[in-house]
Structures are given as structure tokens and as C-alpha cells.
Design goal:
By secondary structure, the chain is mostly helical. The protein has 13 helices and no strands. The chain is globular, with a radius of gyration of 20 Å.
């Protein structure tokens, strides 16, 4: 009964947060530009925030379960770092080699950046999937993801050293992350991909429940652990890759939201946790987006600053709680 009430509250709160996001901004309701601003800027931003929050939260829950690490997040496999490297290669090299940065080319440039991010992320994900079939323990996969992240960061640092100021500025802006970057024809593609992937990720509830008790326990129940782990990694990796490609790196949502869902629903059953995490992710992303727009006409707060203010204390609480245990 309690879970049903919580689900109803979450389902009702999301449209309210959507409405608050649409109504909040520097353009006042009733002005000539209001309808245009809502349909071309605010509504796509709201839909992007919902898809991004849901995707990263579900990916974070999957990573925390298979690695048995409450501080694991969607970026733990190095997928986000690889997406950043793909964007860096395209943005920084385009100016160095071609003499003009892609950020000047509007939709064509944005599409090229998105493709580069997806290519980089999926390339690394294929390596991680291959490793998941070759190694027994999760620790090796975890370390591999961290090392891939370090390598990608190092290469990006080298590229920055040989790039011009305009290219570096364009890359830094992309790296800040934003829900307002997806618009026009891209929004339908982004929402379509996430709307397809999220229901498929719900099908992994049973193997996630088995893996929660450890690989040996899952093996005794008849689960093909390597295959299940591979599909979970593919699910989390693609969700993270798509979000990073379209929105840039969005921090802390994937780490914090699974803990919020566990705290609210008081369960480890992924049949409940997966949809709960999805809804909590949508709600938190909408709340962060609303807070980021509070300055109004004076500008916006970077979205990662808001997510860090909310997510970092949750991560610290989990760390201290784990230390006490």
C-alpha cells in the first residue's frame, strides 16, 4: 500500500514540475514571444531533462547492483569519458586541421558532435563488453573503466595543448552539460531512443535481483552470470552514451537517485526499484532544471552545479553510512 501511494505521489509530482519548468523563465506569460519560447525552448528542455534523468538514474542503479558498490555511477565504465574524447577529437581537431571549429556550423556541427560522442562511447562500451566475457570478477571491469577514463582525459589534455582558444571554448561549453542543447529535429530522435531503451531496461529486473546476492548465488539459481552482466552493461552503457552525446556530461544524478529511490521505497527488489528510480530521476532532473533557471533574466546556473549541490551530499552520506557499517 505504501509503495502504491509513493508511486502515485511521484506520478502526480512530475506533471507539476513540468508545468513549473514551462512557466518559469525570463519571458513572461501573455507576451507575444511566450508561445514560441514554450514550444521551441522550454518544452524540449523539459522533455530532455526527463529523458536524461530517467536514463542516467536507471543506468546508475544497474551499475551499483552489478558492481556491489553504492558509489558507482553511469560514468564508472569510462563511457562518459570516451564520449568526451570523441567530442574533443572532432571539436579540437576541426579547428586545428580545418581552420574552423564545428560550433560555427549550427545543426550540421551539432549533429557531428553528437555522432562523435556516440561513436566514442559505443567503442569503449564494446571493449568493456568484451572484457565482461573474458574476466570473472567485477573488480577488473571497474578498474578497466577507471583506467579508460584516465586515458581519455590525458588525450583530451594533449589535444587542448595544441588547439586554438575558440575550439577549447566550444569544448568547455559542451563539457558543462545542458538540457537546453537538444532542440528541433534532434529532440524527437533523443526521446525516441530513450523511450525504446528504458522499457527494455525494465526487463533486467530479475537478473539484477539475482546478482544482488552475489555472482555465486546467481549461478546457483541457474543464471548465466556472464551473459546477464554483459546485457546489463550494454543497457547502462547505451543509456549513458546517448545522454552524454546529446546533453554533455551530467553529473551526480545517476549516483544519487538510486539511493533516493531505495530510501523512499525501503526495498532492494528491482521490480519496484527500476520504475521508482526512473520516476525519481525524472523528478530530480526537472527540479534541478527549475533551480538552474531561478536567476531569470540574469542568466542560468550551470546544471552540473545544481546536480552537484544535491548529489554530492547524498554521496557523502552514503560514504559515511557505509563506513559506520
Amino acid at each position: 500500500m505504501k509503495n502504491t501511494v509513493l508511486f502515485v505521489i511521484l506520478i502526480v509530482s512530475i506533471p507539476l514540475l513540468m508545468l513549473c519548468n514551462i512557466m518559469t523563465g525570463s519571458v513572461e506569460m501573455g507576451s507575444e514571444l511566450w508561445e514560441t519560447v514554450v514550444m521551441t525552448i522550454r518544452l524540449p528542455q523539459v522533455l530532455t531533462a526527463m529523458a536524461c534523468g530517467a536514463s542516467l538514474s536507471v543506468a546508475g542503479l544497474q551499475m551499483q547492483t552489478i558492481f556491489h558498490n553504492p558509489l558507482a555511477g553511469p560514468s564508472v565504465l569510462g563511457v562518459s569519458s570516451a564520449a568526451s574524447l570523441g567530442v574533443a577529437l572532432v571539436l579540437l581537431l576541426s579547428g586545428t586541421i580545418g581552420g574552423s571549429t564545428l560550433s560555427r556550423f549550427g545543426i550540421i556541427g551539432n549533429t557531428a558532435i553528437t555522432i562523435a560522442a556516440i561513436t566514442g562511447a559505443l567503442s569503449v562500451m564494446m571493449v568493456i563488453v568484451w572484457l565482461s566475457r573474458k574476466v570473472q570478477g567485477n573488480a577488473t571491469l571497474l578498474i578497466s573503466g577507471v583506467l579508460i577514463g584516465y586515458i581519455a582525459t590525458a588525450i583530451i589534455g594533449v589535444l587542448k595543448a595544441y588547439s586554438n582558444e575558440e575550439d577549447i571554448h566550444a569544448y568547455v561549453i559542451w563539457g558543462l552539460g545542458s538540457f537546453s542543447r537538444v532542440s528541433g529535429g534532434q529532440i524527437s530522435v533523443f526521446i525516441g531512443i530513450t523511450a525504446l531503451l528504458l522499457p527494455l531496461s525494465m526487463l533486467l529486473a530479475k537478473p539484477l535481483n539475482m546478482l544482488l546476492m552475489g555472482d555465486l548465488y546467481a549461478l546457483n539459481l541457474g543464471l548465466n552470470v556472464k551473459r546477464a552482466r554483459m546485457w546489463i552493461i550494454i543497457s547502462a552503457g547505451i543509456l549513458t552514451a546517448v545522454v552524454t552525446a546529446y546533453c554533455g556530461p551530467i553529473m551526480f544524478i545517476g549516483l544519487a537517485v538510486p539511493h533516493i529511490a531505495r530510501g523512499l521505497f525501503r526495498t532492494s527488489d528491482h521490480r519496484i526499484l527500476l520504475p521508482a528510480t526512473l520516476l525519481c530521476g525524472m523528478g530530480l532532473a526537472l527540479l534541478c532544471n527549475l533551480i538552474s533557471k531561478m536567476p531569470g533574466a540574469n542568466g542560468v546556473i550551470p546544471i552540473n552545479s545544481v546536480t552537484a549541490l544535491i548529489g554530492a551530499p547524498i554521496a557523502l552520506y552514503v560514504l559515511l553510512k557505509r563506513k559506520r557499517q
